[in-house]
Fold each of these.
Amino acid sequence: MSAPGSKPVAASQTPMHGGQLAITALVLALGTFMQVLDTTIANVSLPTIAGNLGVSSDQGTWVITAFAVANGIGVPLTGWLMGRYGVVRTFVFSIFAFTVASLLCGIAWSLTSLIFFRVLQGGVSGPMIPGSQALLISIFPPQKRGTALGIWSITTLVAPICGPILGGYISDNFHWGWIFLINVPVGLLVAFLCWTNLKDRETPTRKLPIDVVGLSLLVIWVGALQIMLDTGKDADWFASTQIVILAVITTAGFAAFLIWELTEKNPVVDLSLFKSRNFALGTLAFCLGYAVFFANNLLMPLWLQTQVGYTATWAGLVAAPTGVVAVLLTPLAAKMMNRYDARIIATVAFIAFGASFLMRANFTNQASFLDFTLPLLVQGIAMATFFLAMITILLDGVPPQRIPLASGLSNFTRITAGGFAASIVTTVWDRREALHQSRLADQTTIFTPGLSHTLQGLHGFGLSDLAGKAAVTRTMVNQAYLLAADDIFWASGWICLVLIGTVWLCKRAISGGGTNAAAD
């Protein structure tokens, strides 16, 4: 189901040495970098993309959710593809297909075409991260496997730093399409060098059955649910026949999917893994924690650009401290995982997440750049510990031969949860804004002395009565969006703190050197 399933075979190959090892490790890391980069690079560019294509910022979030959900659905196929065609062929083809899809995204002429190409990009990128990890491990000597995993881990943390900054800079200075087009030369180079250096190290292949019905049902119910979440707000939710039909398809498809997967001999998603307490509760906490993080990672730059007046570049710089702190602390966190109960490390992660979100819940109209970055510095602590701890917990007690399946299933649920959360957060934000705006409007009438004094002051600056009222209305809308964002930050903080209880319902788990944690 994911790359770890191919590690025992790949790792038996003769290790590389010297310049060939350095070049191959670099291009494999670049493969991971591209995929992770594309999960964040578009976040700060949404207002620019939406404006250029003539759609609202809410509709622009489909660019994020389409990629996330398609990537999540593509993950369960990874193990089958690598077993059927080999790790090297699958990885190189995935890189090449991702490059072609990136080119199509860069030249997209409408929101519909961009979403379609992002679905394609997300779907073909499923094998990229597990494939790069498996191949990295195979080219290093066994005693230096930690070095291989370190390169892989650092790459996955550096990419989120570069994504918002690079996406913001490109959006402010060039056409937004270049956030995707920059993948083309890198992807072609990675595909060429990987095939040249690794084609003689292909893993054995065998004919494997594939659960076509299960995969089809998965695509149907996940796709219907995502479309419902993305279009529900504009369609007035269940007042719309379309939304009702999508809800019925989602419910029926999910029920059929559960029944089929529980009775199928070779299921695409092995649901029997949820019989393990650690896997079930660990995956629940992992998905909810990641969903909260992913949603806020989308909301923050969107709010900064549409309401605070930040450019895409500055919105990206606000997010940079998270990755910097995570990169610096990850080696320490990995060492701690070998000595302490993973539940303790997970608690540290959720406390850091909760503190970061609750700090943001105190934002005001006078907040400075430093005020915005401080909570994200705290979030960096969570990023350095969250993934390592949660994966160690949920994989604890899983038999070695089933770890690939468990790792793939946790990846699928995590990525899909993030896509759903991205759709939900924009709807909640707009609804809370409408509520706060109505309350502010009740306090801002022609009979309110404060409004009269404000209008008089604006008259002194040369504004007419109508222009003055328009300025007051705009300020009121900004304040309403601020209060709505604060509400979401507040709720996110408490959700993370509550999830600590879920973590402690799991059994004690200690990493055996961090291998399982990194395998995801």
Amino acid sequence: MTAQDPNHSHPPARTRFAPSPTGYLHLGGLRTALFSWLWARHTGGQFILRVEDTDRRRYVPDSLDDILQGLRWLELHWDEGPDIGGPYGPYVQSQRTALYREHAEQLIASGHAYRCYCTPERLAALREEQQRRGERTGYDRHCRSLSPEERAAKEAQGLPHVVRLAVPLEGTTTVHDLLRGPIVTDNRQLEDAVLLKSDGMPTYHLAVVVDDHLMAITHVLRGQEWLPSAPLHQLLYDAFGWEPPVWVHLPVILDPSGRGKMSKRRKVVDGKEYLALVREFMEAGYLPEALFNFLVNVGWNFDPEREVFTREEAIQRFELQEIHPAPAALPYEKLEWLNGVYIRQMDPTELKRRLLPFLSRQLGIPEEDLAGDSRLDRLVPLIQERIKRLDEAAPWLDWAFVDADALPYESPNVLLGRKLSPEQSLAVLRKGHEILQQVEPFQADAIQAAFRAAAQEMGIKAGSFFGPFRGALTGKRVSPPLFESMEALGREQVLRRVERAIQALEAQLQRTP
């Protein structure tokens, strides 16, 4: 845990991230978790993970694992949660149902809530009638005015019921949001929301208020889409006689065009596909350091003069009051750039370690085999300046892990030097083969010097002389630096590839009339 910054007078905060396992972690949810984590760390407080799993209808079995994996990947470690416990547990709502029922009964006893016996059929008919009349749809408070005798009769029949909040029929409710100031709502615009469902499970409104209070949460950071629910939550805090937390409704994240809210799924904007789920960013080879840096600046700004900063620097500077309430567009091109910066700054040994799962998946080679392959130790530094994502490494390196006889040539002309005929290119390959057999040591500088001397002797430009060997070695026109790649492969494998290239060109010339 990071100690409280002595330059700030904020008391230690208790923040929480409370995902619902009804879908996979997306960038908006991760940004909420990140800001909550930053504020807890900035103030020397605690960051709590709570699982809000009361919506069993929409429950997705593997979504919780996905959410936890995404948080751990970004290193947003929690101080209390379902897996590590804590003094305010349990941290899974489905394990706290007795608490919600107890608090619902308190509200009924104090007159702030009531039991509603209306059937789904009656509510559907009511909604249909309201729509027919062009009225605003919503519950008509039918059961709120039941007499004690009518309630007793329904209780005696054991009729199923929900518990609804008794919203004040007059006046206003004011929610104080840290970013937006006081937000005043006319109570006549509010519905008597369901707090406890007929199966005894709470709705979000009751559970979130009870949990945030009992877990001593001081600051609630959540998406702007929860603003319409905030007056109901304020009324619940008032009904219980509790002090509400500091509310911070974070700005909406827009898609890169700035024209609409970022989707929770991949989205195509102006013909380009943009990722949305955290698992997609992980699979695409983005680094957690880069995504951390990127997301911190979506809705907040570390420093207009600096694009790259450390985790500790972000913790030290982060201030809730400096979050911009206006919607923020996602500048994906900046994430690409940031990822490239972090890759170039990384120690090559660490970069190799991070590349292993991507290369294993893309090349079909077991990770443990790649980990012990010394060629990779030499090749990774050669592509470090050339990739912006980890999944881009395989096309640069795949040739090195293919047998010489199975190496595909990307085009018939890949073995031809620039402005050289097939006959000239064949002569170059034969000359190079002689050099590669004899050059000592078999190292990049020595090979390059011998090749340059041979090119001058044959009256061929060095670049044109090198071209056929790039094709022979990799099967491609674009590859990592040629001579360093030769050194990484070793003399035997390089000679075998050049021999195969010579055979291919000879066969091509024989077929040409």
Amino acid sequence: MSRLAQVSENGQKVAEAIASVLKVEVEIIDTELVRVAGTGIVRNDVGSRLLRGLVNKHVLQTGNHIFISEAGFHSICLSCPLSGRCFYRASIVYPITAENEIIGTISLIAFDDVQKETLSKNTGTLIEFIRRMADLISSKALEREITAERMVMTNRLEALVDAVYEGVVAVDSDGLVTHFNQSAERLFGAKKENVIGKDAGEIFPALPLFEVLQEGKGFNSREVLFNFGGRRLHLLSTARPIKVDNSPIAGVVATFRDFKETQRLAYEIMSTQEMVDFEDLIGVSKSFARVKSKAVKKSAGNLTILLIGESGTGKEVFARAIHASGPYGHKPFVSINCGAIPENLLETELFGYDEGAFPGARRGGKQGKFELADGGTIFLDEIGNLSLYLQAKILRYLQDGRIERVGGGRLIPVDVRVIAATNNDLQEMVRKNLFRDELYYRLSVIPLEIPPLRERPQDIPLLLDFYMKRFSKLLGKDIRGFSDEAMKACVKYYWPGNVRELVYTVEYAINLEENQLISLESLTPEIREGTRKKTRSGLAGDGRLLQLAQLEKEAIAAALDRFGWNDEGKIKAALALGISRATIYRKVQKYGLKQA
């Protein structure tokens, strides 16, 4: 559609107004010689293309206006088939220009002697008048294009804001909500149409938006707790004032994210995706230094290693360091939690599948974790959760170095170093026929037992300082240490969740702390209380260390004491312990755990 055609309605109104005042007819033509507006006998031809239009072509090409006093007899008309008998009597044709581009013409036309006389007697005045009308139509075309461009930009902005994972809320200078994206709808449980244009102070009185409006200063990663729609929301918010040059604040835009999701993401960024070597393993205690030294020595080979330790002691970090320091360090490190994936899916995750292996199988099949790790290392976490059938397939690989895809008939050679980890007592599982003895012996060629955090208290200050610096940078805060009272409470604490719980505790504290030193009040309630139930101590009455299975039982019970024994509490406890929701339900049933 031509630029003039897009404003044909405006052009028609202009044409009719001119015709009514001057008593001559008006015709507006675009660059394709299509009538976009017309009056009189050409009104019915609006939308059709001129068959000849030699005069209009001339004006479009030259950019100069022209007055035809005797239509059909002008030199431009001589090549026209209607030369000498044109149904036009006279005309003034003027170019319509927008930003130095000719976009069409506007013509005053005479179809009888009276109209011809009007054009002939007032030619100069009419040319000036029609020039102004051409400018008017041009401005309408430009205005329409600018409006359309702004609409496109607005739609793009809306689409961009809606695509953002964080909830985005914006208010104008009066505190009225101007933007509320789809993520905000999901986060707050409110519909956009019920929020836009409403007073944010009435709908979201607890949000710190008006503080930014009044003070003109934004903030980063502030924790926000409030009730909305019958729910208790725990969010992390960042806000910025909207400023235009030196004008007063035009509004505020704020982003919101679920606090628990932020915790999960931060932990993944720090521990899951980064490269780790032995320099990153923090600890000076004798027990930790001993296992670290042993790991350094054994990393140089390619023998299978079994990491033993409670949940949260850092078994995967050790695995990554062993991988990075060994001959496979420049190749892939592939990790899989054997307790977090249903058994019917775990086989295909580990070994892949061939095309047609089952309904819905991807065309061409799919590689499993072993194939993806070829040349590198595969880390099998929670290997004690494997079924006897999958244990047999792992054993078969360790024996002949080949795997078989689900639904496949060929053996695929794969060169992978296996590092396994468990918090179960595999020897006890072997005795109970829950774990294959051949696999256990294969895996435990080099066993490394990682001590729990409570057995290395001198390492706690080092870990607290390390993660304090990491989270301070990540969350944009100027936190420089712990108060003496907070540090003593942390060292004294039992740490049933080990390093994973310590990481969560530091992040929790930094999100709450507003000063440069983390105070006791910013620590989790468990650490502030500084006591644990004796039945959750992890020690027998005579002080003997309990078996790993008992320690696992104690850790799960302690986590449930903290987060609650209902469904929501079990989900939170599973997240804190680094196990799946299904696993924690299974463990609760296995150990017969009940709320004390």
